[in-house]
Amino acid sequence: MAVDSALSSPLGPPACEKDAKALQFIEKMTRNADSVQERVLAEILTQNSQTEYLRRFKLNGATDREIFKSKLPVITYEDLQPEIQRIANGDRSAILSANPISEFLTSSGTSAGERKLMPTIKEELDRRQLLYSLLMPVMNLYVPGLDKGKGLYFLFVKSETRTPGGLLARPVLTSYYKSDHFKTRPYDPYNVYTSPNETILCPDSFQSMYTQMLCGLQERQQVLRVGAVFASGLLRAIRFLQLNWEQLTQDIETGSLNQKITDPSLRESMAKILKPNSDLAKFVRQECSQDSWEGIITRIWPNTKYLDVIVTGAMAQYIPTLDYYSGGLPLACTMYASSECYFGLNLNPMCKPSEVSYTIMPNMAYFEFLPHEPNSAGFTRDSPPKLVDLVDVEVGKEYELVITTYAGLCRYRVGDILRVTGFHNSAPQFNFVRRKNVLLSIDSDKTDEAELQKAVENASQLLREFNTSVVEYTSYADTKSIPGHYVIYWELLVKDSANSPSDEVLKQCCLAMEESLNSVYRQGRVADNSIGPLEIRVVKSGTFEELMDYAISRGASINQYKVPRCVNFTPIMELLDSRVVSAHFSPALPYWTPDRRR
């Protein structure tokens, strides 16, 4: 479709008039990033001027940046917990936001082992929808013809619960998929999914995955892109196909749905789609029964142009496996978002994963940046940090993201470390470097050093009756298996070899560690099947001394050497694995329930 030249964009020629308007919006926001930021802060402070939180700091209706910065402290989740707890318990007064809190979005970050609860308001859904609406217009600049087929996306809802005060608490994507913005979205030829809404909205993860995969196989020739939210989710879908292709081909051959699918709305929805197709069944059977699954994505979905998955941060560990299954298809990372706020998008989505830069959209929230200096002493209320505005960050420097949102978070530390790579107009572009303090991550779980230490301490209690203790430990996230799992290396001091702990005891140690980890990890194990059983590998006595010798031989200071609590450097892994004397896996699932601890 020809587009009026008056609607053209510096980003490139738009695919249609709707795209042209979206690209113009991106240009307008990024050209005027500082004035947009000023307006956003003034709107937030005006809207929430009578809230208990802003009154506490005596802002007195001021909307000026400098007054705001001088009076409001930079905070973490723990600082806000009393207010959040009051809202969760049913206090409906204007504590953080003048608008009613509509629900809580549960973050994958944790506090005291429980998911963080992020208050949100109804209008935030519009803001999130706005960012989503910009993704395809940008993608269409790089990949033509996406209106000629469909996307096979593996999207899922997760369990939700209610707080004592009756507010829903659920992940941000579950909130979005269950909203009318998603369920009654207008038809867009550039954004058609193979999966009907019913398959995405089914709360049973097996039935949801089964029917989404079945729809994807049925329409294999029409699929132009394959995706999931995280790389780990797409690999879980491939693993699911490996385990269930025989039943899936049976359904395709007979045109009748497996009896394991019991959800009535799913059965009704699939009855309209599923028709007997013996040729397709034969083809899928032939491909899936081969010994090698290399390139399976392009073998089954031959018209796939790219994979749409997040492969930045901890997800980068999955890139080699995705390349293996896809034959090296481009990996597109399209947007940068969290439960607290949606931040921005990738204006060059077909770049290499290592070069992904997200452009912050200045209309989403008010953004500040705390210079990240790993060795600095930190800051206190008496020595507040100097935060930098959005347009004043410097290329090459790293910052921690701090946000002020319409929903009432003020100068809140998100915990993401970002590196400035450049600017689009006056809006900065960032590499996502990592989550602050996270050691281990397989899916949406995030385990930090203190949590790992506590889990090791709790598990090692089981060794006491054998007069055995853990001398040293380290860990890594093993993503070669699907799903991935945590591996913990233990060096033990066994004081009585005649009474050393058995395989059964060490298996119980694995389970004890899992019981000690946060609720996001345990949900991944129990409900989502996104994390495999934790493994303890016992290494020979003296292994960690060898590790220190190796580090010193590479230039580490003997005085400052600390055992790394997480390893991913190949020579170190090889050294550890060559010293393993036994391996033990968790024998059962840890305890998990959707309900939060009261």
Quick summary of this structure?
This protein is α+β, with helices and mostly antiparallel strands. The protein is built from 20 helices and 22 strands.
Q: Can you describe what's shown?
A:
This protein has 598 residues and is an alpha+beta fold. Helix content is 36%, strand content 21%. The strands form five sheets. An eight-stranded antiparallel beta sheet has the order 9-10-11-16-15-14-12-13. A four-stranded mixed beta sheet has the order 2-1-5-4. Helix 10 (205-218) packs across helix 11.
Which features would summarize this protein structure in a list?
single chain; alpha+beta; 22 strands; 21% strand; globular
Record the SSE blueprint.
Elements: H1 17-31, H2 33-47, H3 52-56, H4 65-71, H5 77-88, E1 103-111, E2 114-120, H6 123-142, E3 150-154, E4 161-162, E5 168-170, H7 172-177, H8 180-183, H9 197-201, H10 205-218, E6 223-230, H11 231-254, H12 264-271, H13 278-288, H14 296-300, E7 306-310, H15 319-326, E8 331-332, E9 335-337, E10 342-345, E11 358-360, E12 366-371, E13 388-389, E14 398-404, E15 412-424, E16 427-435, E17 438-440, E18 447-448, H16 449-460, E19 468-478, E20 485-494, H17 503-516, H18 519-526, E21 535-539, H19 543-553, H20 570-578, E22 580-585
Parallel strand pairs: 1-5, 3-6, 6-7, 7-8, 20-21
Antiparallel strand pairs: 1-2, 4-5, 9-10, 10-11, 11-16, 12-13, 12-14, 14-15, 15-16, 17-18, 19-20, 21-22
Helix pairs in contact: 1-6, 10-11, 11-13, 11-15, 16-17
